Amino acid sequence: MTVFNKEIRQLYKGILGITLLLSLFILTIVLIYPQFAQESAGLIDLFRNVSFFTDVLNIDLSLITSLAGYYGMEFEVLVGLLGSIFLAFIAGNLIVKEEKDHTAEFLYTLPHNRLSILVQKLLAFISLSLMMHLIILAVAYLTIKLSSQEMSGSDLINLQLATFLCHLVVGFLSLGMTELIPGLISNLGPMVVIFLYLMNILDNMVQNVPLIRWLTPFSFTSSADIIQNHTIDWSLVLSNFSLALVFLLLAAWRFNRRDIQT
C-alpha cells in the first residue's frame, strides 16, 4: 500500500484543515440557534417575501423553526456545497498532480500496475473523506448535547451520511472527467460541482422534469426532504453512484492505456 500511504501523508493536512474550519462553522451555527429561534418569526416573514429564493434552494420555512431544520439548512451549504468544492478539487488532482509535478515517471516504475495505483489513491481519498465527516458529526453531536439542545440522532446521521455519499460522487465524477478530458485541467473538479449544483437549482425550479434529479447528487442531500421523511432517498443515491462509477471505470480504462501527459 505504498501509494495509499503516500496519498494519506500528502492529503491529510489539507483535509484536516478544511475539516476543522467546517467543524468550527457547525459549532457556531448550533450555538447561535437559540438566538436565531427568538428572531425566527421575523426571518420567516422575510423569507416569505422572497419565495422564489426559498423555492430555488428548496427551503421549507416550516422546518427552520426547529434546530433540525435550521441545522440542515446551514449544513447543506457549509458542509455540502463548500465541502464538495474542496474534495472535488482534491479528487480531480489525484492523477493530474503526478504528471504536473513530473513525479509520474517515478510513480509508474513502482511495482504496482496503474489500476492498483488508481485504486490506492481512491482508497486514500475515501478514507480521508470519511475521517472528515466523522469529525464533523462528532463536533455537531457534542455541541448539541453540551448546549442542552435537542435534535433527532437519526436526522443528524442521515444528513451527514447523505453529504458523505454526495462527496464521494462528486469526487469520482471529478476524477473521471479530469482523466477523460485531454490536458492537465487541475481545476475541473470545482467546475463539476458548480454544474451539478446548478442542475439541482434547475430541478427545484422546473418541477416537471424529474430526470434532472437523477443526475445530480445534490438531489439526495436536500435537508428538507431528509428531515421530513427521516430517511435518504436511496434510489437517487443509486442513480448518481451508477453514473459516477461509469465515469470512473472509463477513466480507469483510459488511464491504464495512455501515455504520460506533460
UniProtKB/TrEMBL annotation:
The keyword Transmembrane helix applies. Keywords: Membrane, Transmembrane, Transmembrane helix. The chain crosses the membrane at residues 12-32, 77-96, 122-144, 156-174, 180-199, 234-253. Pfam families: ABC2_membrane_2. PANTHER family: INTEGRAL MEMBRANE PROTEIN-RELATED, MEMBRANE PROTEIN. This is ABC transporter permease.
